[in-house]
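sorry for the late reply, my laptop died twice this morning and i had to redo everyting from scratch. anyway the thing you sent over, i finally got around to it. pasting the sequence first so we're on the same page, its 181 residues, then the predicted structure underneath. double check i copied it right bc i was rushing
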Amino acid sequence: MASAFAHSLVAVTAGKLFPSKVQQFKFFALGIFCATSPDLDVFMHKLGYSYSHVLGHRGFFHSLLFSLILAIFIKIIFYYKTPIMSKLGLILTAYFFFCAASHGFFDAMTTGGRGVAFFAPFDNARHFLPWRVIRVSPMSVSQFFGEWGLRVLKSEAYWIGIPCMVVLFGNWMVRKVRRRS
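ok and here's the structure:
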């Protein structure tokens, strides 16, 4: 898996692309939650589910269906006054969906694990993307704070951090040009 830091950075970067009127603390905090929550499936192992089970790590909770369900749930609970089919409702749902779905895509770019079940529960086949360039993060917090974790952070800085900075800079430039026009 990619680390929670990388998933959070992607959520914040994506949030900066949305209209400034929605860019509030709650918006970013919920985006980060959506981007990191699929890894809560590591606790399924403690409940007796194997890694390869549909409820195991990188299974249903990393799927596109779960991302959509989570996005709708978050929008309904935390933005209940905004109709889901309104422009703002769709923007919020799209952002939360993107954050949650991005988790699986970045995990599918890691150098370890058994792939991601993007289409669970309908298909539990695990998939990787053709580019497996991000160092896989340890599942243990204690292992993360060591040499392995440092290698992960360097890899994520290169493959996720730099592209996020490019996107943020490009967004800043576009907004600056628009303000002048």
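DSSP finds six helices and no strands in the chain.
thats about all i looked at so far, will dig more tmrw
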